[in-house]
Amino acid sequence: MHVTRQISRRSMLKAAGAATAAVGVTGVTAGVTTVPAAAAGSGFAHPGLLHTRTDLERMAAKVKAGAAPYTTGFAKLTANRHAQNGWRANPQATVYRGAGSPQNYTILYNDIHAAYQNALRYHVDGDSAHADTAVAILNAWSAQLTSIEGSADRFLAAGLYGYQFANAAELVRDRPGFDLAGAKKVLLDVFHPLSESFLAKHNGAYDTNYWPNWDLTALACVLAVGIFCDDRAKVDRAVEYFKHGVGMGSVKNAIPVVYDDGLAEWVEAGRDQGHALLGVGLMGTVCEMAWNQGIDLYGYDDNRFLKGAQYVAKWSMGGTVPYTANTRRKGAPGVWSGSETASAAAAVDPAMTRPIWAMIANHYTKRRGLSASYVTRIAAKAAPEGGGGDYGPNSGGFDQLGFGTLAFTRDRVRAASARPSESAADAGAGARPQSAATPSAATPSAVASAGSGDDLAATGSTGLVGWTAAAGVTAVAGGLLLLRRRGRERREAE
C-alpha cells in the first residue's frame, strides 16, 4: 500500500508554502468547494462554542415536535442524574489531579457536567429552574477556584475541565445573575495558563514525549477560552497550533500518514483504543468550536481529520487497518532521553464507545454533504449518545460533554455549505472571507472506502438510530500532500 511521508517540518513548509498556511483548504468533493471564512475583528458569535443559537433553537423545536432521534436524545439527557435542578455545587479552592491532597478533581468534573446538562436542558424545555441551577454551580466555582495542582495530570485537568467550563458558561452567559466577569477571570487565571504552558513547553519534556490527547486537551481549552473571552490572539494561537504545532496533537502529527484508500492513521491507535477515541473526540470538539466562529479546521488539509476519524471508526468496530511504524522521542532535556516505537494498531473492544461520533458524522454528511461510511456506522451504533455519568464513574466517562444525538443531529442541507458557520454570521459576527488553497491538477489523493481500559477510556451501552451511509469520499488535495516521517528526531522543548 502506497504511503506518502513528510520528510521534515521545514521541507513540508517549503513544499506547501502559503497553501498550507491558509485557513481551511479547498477540497473538491462531489462537486462542492470549501471556501472558509472567519469572524471579523475581535468579536465572536455568542453562543458560539459547541452550540450556536441556531443549534439550540433546532433542538427545542425538534423535541417539541416529537421528532426522532431528538426525543430519544433528550430522554437520555433528562434521565441523567447530573441534569436535575436539585444539583448543588461543592466548589474547592484548589483542585488536585494525579498528586497532592485531596485528590478532588472528581468533584470539579461532576459539577461542570451538572452545569452543562442543566443549561442544555433549559434551552430545550425552557424550564428556568435548570438555568438557575447551572448559573449557581458556575458562579460557585468562579468565586472559589484559585488553582489546579498535581502531577503532570494537572494539565489534563486544566484542559478538559477548562473547555467544558467555558461551554457550560457559554449557555448561560446572558442569564440574570450569572457572573460573566467571574467566569472569564477563572478561565483566564486558572485554566488557560496551564493549557498555554503545556502547548509551549510540554511540561519541560521533549515535544513528542506526550501522546496527542495531552496536546488536544490544552488546545480545546485555549480555543474555548479565547472564544468565550473574545480574545482573538488566543483563538489565533489555537488555530495555528492545530495546523503547525510542534507537539503530537497538531493535526499532521496526530494523523501522520494518509493511505491510498482514504483512511489516515491515527498515531495513538498504536497505544490503545480508549486514548485514540479520546483524541478523536477532542479534535472534533476543536473543529466544531472553530467552525461555529467561521474557521474551517474540519476541512483543513483536504479533510485530514475526516480521514483520521474514518480510520479510528473502522478500527474500533473491529476492522483491519494499516499502521506505519513510528518512533517518538521521550523524556526531557538534561534529565532522561529515550524513544518508543509503535508498530501496529492495538487490539480493540468493539463494545467500547464514547459520545463523540454524532458531531463528526453530522458535520461531514449533513453540513458538507460528504460520505463518511465508517463514521456514520459507528455513530448509529453509539446512539442515542449520553453524557457525563452515562459512561462510568471514572474521569474517562466525563472527557466529552456528549449528548450528540440531541445536539448535533441535523437535516442535510440542500446545497453543502460553502462557509463554516451560517450561525456566526446570523449572530452578527461579521465574517471576512479568506483565501483557500488553490487546488492542484494533481491526481486525487484519496477515496474513503465503504465498508476496557483505564481512567481515560469510556464504556457504555449503545442504541441505534436509522442512519445509512453511502460509500466513500472522493477529494482532490490542494497541492502536494507531504506527511511526516515518524522516526525523525524532533527539536527539544524550550
Short structural summary:
The protein is mostly helical. Helix content is 43%, strand content 9%.
Q: What does this protein structure show overall?
A:
This protein is mainly alpha-helical and about 500 residues long. About 45% of the residues lie in helices and about 10% in strands. The protein contains 17 helices and 13 strands. A three-stranded antiparallel beta sheet has the order 1-7-8. It has a two-stranded antiparallel ribbon with strand order 2-3. Strands 4-11 form a two-stranded antiparallel sheet. The longest helix is centred in the middle third of the chain and has 22 residues, at about 180-200.
The residue ranges in which pLDDT falls below 50 over 5 or more consecutive positions are 1-41, 422-494
Determine the structural class based on helices, strands and strand pairing.
mainly alpha
Mean pLDDT across the residues is: 81
- Strand line-up of the largest beta sheet: 1-7-8
Instruction: Report on the biggest sheet.
Output: 3 strands, antiparallel
Number of strands: 13
Q: Please count the helical segments.
A: 17
Rg over CA atoms: 21 Å
Q: Write down the overall geometry.
A: globular
List the secondary-structure elements in sequence, H or E. Answer: EHHEEEHHEHHEHHHHHEEHHEEHHHHEEE
Name the beta content range.
5-15%
Q: In percent, how helical is the residue content?
A: 40-55%
Distance between the termini: 38 Å
